Amino acid sequence: GIDPANAGRIRRWIDAWQLPVAVTPKVKGVVDETAATFVGVVSGMAADGLMCDALAASDALVGFGLDPVEVDKTWHAELPIHWVLEAPNVGGRVPEGVELVDHVRLLDALSPSPPAVWNQPFREFQQKRRDMLLRPATPAGNGSTMWPGDIVNALARALPAETIVTTDVGSHKYVFGQFWPSRHPETFWMSNGLSGMSYGLSAAIGAKLARPDAPVLAALGDGGFSMNAQELETAERVGARFVTVVLEDDSYSLIKLSQEGKKLAAYRTDFGPIDTVKMAEACGVEGLRTANPDELSAAARRAVDRRQSLVIAVPVDYRDYRRLF
After folding, report:
1. What is the model's pTM?
2. Beta partners for residue 217, in sequence order
């Protein structure tokens, strides 16, 4: 993986060469995701097909800390790969075709020598990615729900660049993993791969205790939130105060969408409405519900400014996720 301490060198090289850049979820924030050169997040988040197409369109791909197995699809299967490692694998064995290079010295040597001309062939992919986040003319909801892209945008407008974001596991993780604009290293945390549900709230408590001066946002689904919502009391008791946003669709929507995609009937993926606000209040935390992006922004900003805990329930229609995947 990437050492966050080297983020500055990587950024300087990307800026000097004006390189299109993508990241995997685990290193969100190593590069500034609001920069003009940022293409997106690979490795199974929302817009995954688009991101794999972008990688496949590259004439050369340089990966720092990247194993191609992390990236979905088989875009790399028939392409030549030149491995450049800083150290041998465990056991001291170097695979065939591997070159050992000091990455720090390599980046320092490359940065002052940018190519004379560099076009930007990824603008089309970048625009398609931006367009995906925009609310469609006919969202699935009936006006009582919020488009997932509006939730991300409303929170990104409201919260400072240094905000630490944790997500739980579910459809919302794919959306925040792709579209949350991380700007600093080690400010985005998710459970990926094994993907254990109910991670997000506990991770937010840990993040706030570790960095008490940083704003923290826990982005959860109602399924994961219901598994350990009682830990809101723990957070209050230990002084870990942060904003929690719960996207409510009354289902395990990621599994439900997978069932539907395979032409199967939805099975054991729906559950009755959970009153997120009352659950928060039962743990001594203020709660509110809104389907309005401006209200969401204002409430989140107010809680951060006042350094208080707040749980915001936001109803969503699970079918809207399908447009983002």
Report:
1. 0.90
2. 165, 243
Tokens of 80: 């030549």
Q: What pLDDT is recorded for position 256?
A: 93
User: Given 125, 159, 178, which residue is the final one in a domain?
Assistant: 125
Cα(53)–Cα(215) distance, integer angstroms: 35
Contact between residue 316 and residue 324 where contact means Cβ atoms under 8 Å apart: no
pLDDT tens-digit profile of 53-85? 888 888 878 877 776 677 766 666 666 666 666
Phi, psi torsion values for 46, nearest 5 degrees? -60, 155
List CB contacts of 4: < 8 A, sequence separation 6 or more: 30, 185, 186
**What six digits make up the tokens of 49?**
């097909």
The answer to whether residues 175 and 87 belong to one domain is no
Report d(CA 92, CA 94) in Å as an integer. 7
**pLDDT tier at 166 (50, 70, 90 boundaries)?**
very high
140 occurs within a structural domain: no
Tell whether the model's pLDDT for residue 189 goes beyond 90: yes
Give the integer Cα–Cα distance in Å for 102 and 260: 48
